[in-house]
Amino acid sequence: MSNATETRRTWTETAEVASGEMVDKLKEIVKAGNARRIILRNGEDDRLLEIPLTAGVAAAGAVVLVAAGAVAALLTRVRLEVVRNDDREEQ
Q1: For residues 36 and 85, is the Cβ–Cβ distance under 8 A?
Q2: Residue 89 CB partners (closer than 8 Å, separation 6+)
Q3: Domain locations in the chain as residue ranges
Q4: Distance between CA 79 and CA 81 in Å, rounded?
Q5: In the chain, what is the greatest distance between 2 CA atoms, to the nearest angstrom?
């Protein structure tokens, strides 16, 4: 047994995308596998939708994409904030 505790760092990536490109970008982010949370914001920096990504996201993936697509359909540009795990080991 080890007394060491596992510490994970997270970092946030921000990208502005056209609403028509958003669903494809979300699929790419989910497929990468290291995202913990996705936040959709409008041009005024208001939080429109926050999607926590857990192990069960594959089952609910279609529902998430439909909800995100509905939000994006109302806007011309959307800002995505992606909170990712840093998979590098601490030394």
Answers
A1: yes
A2: none
A3: 10-86
A4: 7
A5: 54
Q: Into which CATH architecture does domain 10-86 fall? A: 2-Layer Sandwich (3.30)
What 3-state DSSP class applies to 28? helix
**pLDDT of 33-82, one tens digit each?**
778 888 888 888 899 888 887 755 555 566 677 777 777 777 778 888 88
Asked if 16 and 81 count as a contact pair (C-beta separation under 8 A), the reply is: no
Cβ-in-10-Å burial (0-12, 13-18, 19+) of 40 comes to buried
pTM over 0.85: no
- Quick one: DSSP state of residue 85? E
Q: What does the buried/exposed string (b/e) look like for 44-59 if buried means 16 or more CB atoms within 10 Å of the residue's CB? A: eeeeeeebebeeebee
Distance separating alpha carbons of residues 16 and 80, to the nearest angstrom: 6
